[in-house]
From TrEMBL:
Record family assignment: Belongs to the pseudouridine synthase RluA family.
Reactions listed under catalytic activity: a uridine in RNA = a pseudouridine in RNA
Organism: uncultured Paludibacter sp
Example GO biological process: enzyme-directed rRNA pseudouridine synthesis
Domain RNA-binding S4: 22-85
Name of the featured protein: Pseudouridine synthase
Amino acid sequence: MKNTKPTSPVKLTKLTVKEPAELMDFLIAKMGGMSRNSVKSLLSHRQVSVNNKITTQFNFPLKATDTVVINSSRGNIELTHPKLRIMFEDDDLIVVEKKEGLLSVTTGKEKEITAFQILKNYVKKSSPQNRIYVVHRLDRETSGILVFAKNRETQLTLQENWHQIVTKRVYVALVEGKVQKEKDRLETWLKEHEKSLKIRSYNTDNGGQMAVTNYRRVKYNENFSLLEIELETGRKNQIRVHMESIGHPIVGDKKYGSTNTGLGRLALHARILEFYHPVTEEIVHFETPVPREFLKVFHK
């Protein structure tokens, strides 16, 4: 006979939000002396839900009348992977933060692990019938926020209406050299070279795809600039190509002109994603910090 330990009754603590706040600050204020690390532990173990949806995002924005529930028992299904962290999950979506070096999805040639495979295995632990659907991608060496759908209908809604649904999409990039302009809008046509498979930027329409990138200079010194970048279009390698075209390639991007390999990675991170939830139609906002290694070059 199987030896089983008696289980403690599950306790649910229900809290109502009175005024706008970030989830971490709200829990610290309400949970009587709980440390930041303790709150982070609750979040990482999927013990906190907002309006009946589990969230692991410490800076999740709360608004008045939201309901926050803390579960005394840890969620049975956890995703623990060094390259992938779940930020948000409900019945329709999974929002993750991907580390650099992990493919979003396979191209058919690679046999290495992908974000898609990791999440597919994760959802099947709850039920073998569960599936994952690709919505968009990040390059292998780009880190940041990535969205997957949990059903075909949500996938199609997001893919077919991506530019109407997404209200904010912000990247940060560390580029070589001092960018002279504080901000600029780059509008060119991108076309892939058949032999090199490298995408090139053209100032006139030569049959390529029009690409629009807006950037703002956040920090700089004589050798590097940190840029905040917003996309109006989402072309393949768009940011990387546009940065090379203005003479400031992204650090670590050997393919597009970088000679600096000091960080050991491509210095591009998808930092903020905000969009209308395809089912609830509410705006959901996800934000990650600027990678520390991007900032170290300004502290020397």
